[in-house]
């Protein structure tokens, strides 16, 4: 029994956190891409997106503070809009580095969030190419252009999106 325990000490090292993150992100994007291919073949993309929006709306009160927002919006609409915009950009950093985002406030009730040289799109392109998956990597952009407007509508914010070659521009306006 002792011989087996001694052999257990192999030359395997702890995987660095950054490598774990990179591998998990690739797996996440590969899962999204393969799911999208199947959903598209079955004609279920819209149904899947509708479910995603429904689930995300249930997360809103905890993630963005719906009750506090409504109160603040009644007192100071511009400040409330800025708070939601800033929180959204902060949250987007789970997949997009802040250095790839630019926030421009047109007024206290309108803002543009520009995603330049989008690493999500680049990584999705790399992943689908690596596994030779027949899917346009911009499908990931289509997901965001559908669910973000529906999600922010809960806050009385109208959102439009313009896709670009390597990124996108979201425009939010407080209703």
Concise summary:
This protein has helices spanning 2-7, 17-42, 45-64, 66-75, 77-92, 119-130, 139-153, and strands at residues 101-107, 110-115, 157-164, 167-174. The chain is an alpha+beta fold and 175 residues long.
Summarize the structure in words:
- 60% of the residues lie in helices and 17% in strands.
- It has 175 residues and is α+β, with helices and mostly antiparallel strands.
- The protein has a four-stranded antiparallel sheet with strand order 1-2-4-3, covered by helices on one side.
- A hairpin with a 2-residue loop joins strand 1 and strand 2 (110-115).
- Helix 3 crosses helix 7 and helix 4 (66-75) runs antiparallel to helix 5.
- It is globular.
- The termini are far apart.
Topology readout:
Blueprint: H1 2-7, H2 17-42, H3 45-64, H4 66-75, H5 77-92, E1 101-107, E2 110-115, H6 119-130, H7 139-153, E3 157-164, E4 167-174
Antiparallel strand pairs: 1-2, 2-4, 3-4
In whole angstroms, how far apart are the ends? 71 Å
Helix content bin: 55-70%
Overall shape: it is globular
Main β sheet profile = 4 strands, antiparallel
CATH 2nd-level architecture: 2-Layer Sandwich
Fold-level CATH name: Muramoyl-pentapeptide Carboxypeptidase, domain 2
What Rg is obtained from the alpha carbons, in whole angstroms? 20 Å
pLDDT averaged residue by residue: 87
Category by helix and strand content: alpha+beta
Kindly estimate the percentage of residues that lie in beta strands according to DSSP: 15-25%
Helix-strand sequence: HHHHHEEHHEE
The tally of helices reads 7
Strand numbers in spatial order across the main sheet: 1-2-4-3
State the CATH class: Alpha Beta
């Amino acid at each position: 029994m002792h011989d087996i325990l001694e052999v257990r000490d192999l030359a395997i090292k702890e995987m660095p956190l950054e490598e774990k993150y990179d591998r998990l992100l690739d797996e996440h994007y590969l899962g999204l891409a393969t799911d999208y291919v199947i959903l598209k073949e079955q004609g279920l993309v819209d149904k899947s997106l509708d479910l995603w929006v429904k689930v995300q709306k249930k997360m809103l009160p905890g993630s963005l503070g719906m009750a506090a927002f409504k109160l603040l919006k009644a007192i100071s609409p511009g400040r409330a809009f800025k708070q939601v915009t800033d929180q959204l950009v902060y949250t987007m950093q789970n997949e997009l580095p802040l250095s790839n985002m630019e926030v421009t406030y047109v007024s206290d009730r309108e803002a543009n969030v520009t995603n330049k040289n989008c690493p999500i799109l680049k990584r999705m392109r790399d992943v689908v190419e690596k596994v030779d998956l027949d899917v346009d990597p911009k499908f990931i952009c289509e997901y965001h252009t559908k669910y973000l407007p529906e999600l922010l509508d809960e806050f009385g914010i109208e959102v439009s999106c313009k896709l670009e070659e390597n990124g996108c521009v979201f425009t939010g306006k407080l209703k």
